[in-house]
Amino acid sequence: MAVLKTRFTLRLDLKDHAKIMKIAESQNRSMNNMIETLIKQTIQKYEEENGEIELTDEDLSIE
Predict the structure, then answer these.
(1) Is there a contact between 23 and 34 (Cβ–Cβ < 8 Å)?
(2) Are 31 and 20 spatial neighbours (Cβ–Cβ below 8 Å)?
(3) What is the mean pLDDT of residues 22-48?
(4) Per-residue confidence at 55, pLDDT binned at 50, 70, 90?
(5) Dmax of the chain from CA atoms?
(6) DSSP state, 8?
(7) How many Å apart are CA 18 and CA 13, to the nearest integer?
(8) Cβ neighbours for 47, distance < 8 A, ≥ 6 positions apart
């Protein structure tokens, strides 16, 4: 099954952008993949500490 993804604009401090890019390069990842990985790790850590985040169909709508 295909994973549905949404697109959005992210604004970063120039230094943070450069540092994330260096990390991504060291792991042979694209910038996009690195940011997605960091977000997923943060969600996983949050859910381990606070329980699973329940989502409704409304939460998953892209409108």
Answers:
(1) yes
(2) yes
(3) 97
(4) very high
(5) 38
(6) -
(7) 9
(8) 53
